[in-house]
Write a structure and sequence with these properties.
D-Maltodextrin-Binding Protein, domain 2, alpha/beta, 12 strands, Arc Repressor Mutant, subunit A, 3 domains, elongated, WH_DNA-bd_sf, five-stranded mixed β-sheet
């Protein structure tokens, strides 16, 4: 029997998205093309593969059984083909789809982009939302090449690399009427707060840290991105509890001042994850190395500046 290998990525995308329209968007295909590919798969395998339901498509038993085999076969093909390709960053032309959480997008991505501009000008990045889990990013199928942030409970087909750790500090306006050079626990709990609710697991970690430290917050406003915080804090008497590296950036704003948290709130990891199909991809390996170097440099520079008192 002859098989059309072009149909296999369509099958994987449908398994992940459970929706023809979203699978088409992930693959860069039209919806009719994906529907046609699904019909050909059904004819070849003599199984409906996906049953339409009210909120999407449910895989059949055959589809569930085939999924790990197809993913493994695609990963093996990628290993063989991509592993034979030479990679010259100065001459390479390629687009990478990366899903950074809002922390990484703020702290690391500008430095990564600047570094690529210097040594690999033909490399383009397409940033996609981190989402609430890896399935939403497209990383589990390999459609998204890398995920950057806090990776919780990764599946077996994802590789996770630790990049660095960060802690938490507080930001208030420089002329705050009650806060001088430190914040006491009593002041922290009496103040009103700006809370950041980015997608993903970092917000859970902050809530857990505060709970473990026995601190309460009176949250007056919740925002969806760190970029909204400076303007909120600069015109109010509110406080924001943010990662130290973000505070390090905000400290350059003359309207704001950064202070230690009233108690040690611990640290959180920043991680890089990718599908196993990319483990031997030379370009992917090179970009992973560059990201790892940038993360170390940014973290080390912030520590050195803090120790110098600047």
């Amino acid at each position: 029997m002859k098989y059309d290998l072009n149909l296999l990525p369509v099958f994987v995308a449908l398994m992940e998205e459970r929706n023809v329209t979203r699978a088409a968007e992930q693959l860069g295909m039209t919806q009719p093309a994906v529907s046609n590919a699904l019909n050909r798969l059904r004819e070849t395998l003599r199984d409906p593969l996906f049953i339409r339901e009210r909120y999407g498509m449910k895989p059949t038993e055959m589809a569930e059984a085939l999924a790990p085999l197809v993913r493994g076969a695609l990963a093996s093909l990628d290993d063989v083909i991509l592993g034979q390709q030479a990679f010259d960053p100065a001459r390479a032309t390629r687009q990478f789809t990366i899903a950074p959480n809002s922390y990484v997008e703020f702290v690391l991505m500008p430095v990564i982009v600047a570094r690529l501009r210097e040594c690999a000008p033909g490399i383009r990045l397409r940033l996609t939302p981190f989402g609430n889990d890896l399935a939403e990013t497209g990383a589990m199928s390999g459609a998204t090449e890398m995920v950057l942030g806090r990776i919780v409970e990764p599946p077996d087909n994802m590789v996770v690399q630790h990049l660095m750790d960060d802690g938490l500090a507080c930001v208030v306006r420089r002329d705050h009427p009650e806060i001088a050079e430190s914040i006491s626990e009593e002041q922290y709990q009496r103040m009103r707060h700006v809370n950041v609710l980015p997608p993903g697991r970092m917000r859970v970690g902050l809530f857990q840290m505060l709970q473990q430290a026995g601190l309460r917050r009176d949250v007056s406003v919740s925002v969806t991105h760190f970029l909204a915080v400076p303007e909120m804090v600069a015109v109010t008497d509110y406080c924001a509890t943010l990662p130290r590296l973000i505070c390090h950036r905000l400290a350059r704003d003359p309207r704001l001042k950064v202070l230690p948290a009233p108690v040690d709130l611990g640290s959180f990891p920043v991680e890089l994850a990718w599908h196993v199909r990319y483990r031997n991809d030379p370009a992917h390996r090179w970009l992973r190395s560059l990201i790892s170097e940038v993360a170390k440099e940014v973290s080390d520079a912030a520590v050195a500046e803090a120790m110098s008192g600047n």
